[in-house]
Amino acid sequence: MGDGLVQARDLRKRFGTFEAVRGIDVDVAQGEVFGFLGPNGAGKSSTMRMIACVSPRTSGSLQVLGMDPDRDGPRIRARLGVVPQLDNLDTELSVRENLEIYGRYFGLPRRHVRAKAAELLEFARLTERAEDRVEPLSGGMKRRLTIARSLVNDPDLLLLDEPTTGLDPQARHLLWERLYQLKREGVTQIITTHYMDEAEQLCDRLVVMDGGVIVAEGSPAELIERWSTREVLELRFAPEDRPAAADLERHAERVEVLPDRALLYTADGERSQAALHAAGLRPLSALVRRSTLEDVFLRLTGRTLVD
Amino acid sequence: MTALDTATRAAPGWARLLPGGSYAGRSRMLLLRSATASRRTWPAIVSGFAEPVFYLLAMGSGLGSLVGTLPGPDGRPISYAAWIAPGLLAASAMNGAVFDATFNVFFKLKYNRLYDAMLATPLGPVDIALGEIGWALLRGGLYATGFLSVMAVAGLLTSPWALLALPAALLVAFAFAAIGMAATSFMRSWQDFDLVTLAVLPMFLFATTFYPLGVYPRPLQILVECLPLFHAVELMRGLTTGAVHLGLLGHLAYFLVMAAVGVVVAARRLEALLLR
Lengths: 307, 276
Ligand SMILES: Nc1ncnc2c1ncn2[C@@H]1O[C@H](COP(=O)(O)OP(=O)(O)O)[C@@H](O)[C@H]1O
Ligand SMILES: [Mg+2]
Known about the structure:
The complex is a heterodimer of chains A (307) and B (276). Chain A has 307 residues and is of the alpha/beta class. Chain A folds into two domains: 6-221, P-loop containing nucleotide triphosphate hydrolases (Rossmann fold, 3-Layer(aba) Sandwich), CATH 3.40.50.300; 225-301, YebC, transcriptional regulation domain (Alpha-Beta Plaits, 2-Layer Sandwich), CATH 3.30.70.980. Chain A has eleven helices and 13 strands. The longest helix of chain B has 32 residues, at 80-111. In chain B, helix 6 packs antiparallel against helix 7 (165-184). In chain B, 70% of the residues lie in helices and 2% in strands. Chain B is mostly helical and 276 residues long. Chain B is elongated and about 60 Å long. Chain B contains eleven helices and two strands; from the N terminus they run H-H-H-E-E-H-H-H-H-H-H-H-H. The A-B interface holds A 15, 52-56, 70-75, 77-80, 82, 84, 86, 88-93, 97, 101-102, 104-109, 112, 153-154 and B 3-4, 6-9, 11, 20-21, 24, 26, 29, 32-33, 36-37, 40-41, 112-114, 116-124, 274-276. Bound molecules: adenosine-5'-diphosphate and magnesium ion (MG). Magnesium ion is lined by residues 44-45, 85, 161-162 of chain A. Residues 44-45, 85, 161-162 of chain A line the site of magnesium ion.
C-alpha cells in the first residue's frame, strides 16, 4: 500500500518484560526528512533499530522499502544508510579504509568504492585526514565520517540516530549543513533527536515520542500552532515574590511553572508583559520569544525535553 | 550489472538452511578487513611465528641432548626434537587461532562495536563468524607453514606424509578458532579470559606435547585423551613421522565436529547478542 519508504502499524518492541515501543504508527514518504523527537528512553533508538533491520520487532507490522525486515533484512539493509547513536567506526583502519572496506561489505566492487570514498572524504571534509587512524579524530570529525560511511552504498533511506548529540555548536552546524545538502539531493532521512532546534531545523515532519508512544505528529510549524501559542513570555522571579499561578494565568492562555521560571503562553507577549506590570507583578527578568517544539513537548508531556 | 545488483545478490543455496538473513555469502570481506588492519599489527603476527621455534630450540636441542631418543608413534626410535616438533606445530596452530578468536574478537565485540557496524550492512552473523574464524585459520596456517619449513630445514620431517600436516594444521586452527569464538561470546569481562589461559596453558604442557601419554596413570590418560590438543598432537605426530594409520581419521573427525559446533554456536550467540 502507498509508496511510503517506511510504514509501521502498531509496532512494538519488548525487552524481557519491559515494553520500549508500545504500538506506534509511522509513515515516511519518499524524499522527506522525518523526525522522532523525544527525551532519553522514549524508544527512539529501539524504533530505529527495528527499521534498520537489526532488531526484530515484537509485534505489529513493519514495511521498509516495501519489504518485511523479518524476511528481507539483508536486501533492505543493502539499500539503507545507518548512523547509529554511538559511533562504531573501525579503529584498526584508517579514515579512508573505513569507507572503502565498509563499501565492500555491501558487495560493491573495489574500483567503485575507491572512487566513492574519495568523493565522500570531500563531502565530510576529511580528505586531509584520509590516511590517519580514526581514534585521534575529534567528535565532530568522527560523526562526519560515520555519516560519510553511511552513504557509501548510495542509500535510498538514511537513518540518523541522534546525529549531533555531544557535539559543540560549530560541529553541529556543519553537520546540519551536510544533512541539508543530502536533503536537497533527494535522500530520504529519518532522524532522531532530543534537541528541539535540530528537529525544527531539519525535519519536514516529525512525531513527538514519549514513553514508547507517539503523542503528536505533524510539521514543526503545525505542531507549534496546534499545541502552543504564537509567543511565550518567560519570567523569572525572586523566590520571595513569586506570584501564585492563578495571578499569572489571568494574563495568558496557559501557564507552566518550572523550578527556575514561569512560562506564559500568549498570542502577544508584549501585551501580556504590560498587563502583568499594570497588575503590579515585578519579575527579575522577562523575555518574549516565539514558541518552539520544546513548548509543544512540555504541553504534551508536562516535562522538559533535555534536563 | 550495476553496483547495487551485486550488493543485493542472493546468498548461495545452502545458506537457506540457516535462519533468514544470517548469511550473505560475503565472509571474505572480513578477511579483507583483517588483512588490511594487520598491515599495522604485523609484529604480533611475527611473534606468534617465533614462539614455537624458540621452544623447539630450547627443548629440542637443549633438553634433547639429555633425553636422546624416544619411541615414535610406530615404535621406532626418533630424536627428541623430531618427537616434540609436531606437538609444537599443533600447539602453535592452537595458540594463534585461540588468541585471535578470543582476545581480538572480544575487543571488537564489546569495545569497537565492530560487529554492530557490520550487521547494519547486508552481512549477517554467519558471515561474521566465518570471516573471523577464517582469519584465525589463515593466521594459524601461516604459523604452521613457517614452523613446518623450520622442521624441514632441521631435518625433522621424515616422511612425505608431512605434506598433509599443513591442511591438518589448518583444520585444527579452524576448530580451535571456532570454539574460541563461541566461548568468547559468553564472556562478560576481561577477567573471564583467565579461563582461556587456564584451558590453553595446561593443554600445551600436559597434552603429550613434550612427553608420551604412557607417563600418566590410566585415569589421567583418559582425561588427556579427551583434550582437543591431544588429538591435534597425535595427528601431527603421525603425519610428520610417517606413522599413518586409520586412527588418524578419528582425530580428524574430532576436529570436524568441534569446528561445526563452534561455528553454529558462535553465529547463534552473535545473533542473540547483537540482533536484539
Ligand atoms: N537491549 C535492551 N535491553 C533492555 N532494555 C533496553 C534495551 N534497549 C533499550 N532498552 C530500554 O528501552 C527504553 C527505550 O530505549 P531507547 O530506544 O534507547 O530510547 P531512546 O533512544 O529514545 O533514548 C529505555 O528504557 C531502555 O533502557
Ligand atoms: Mg537513543
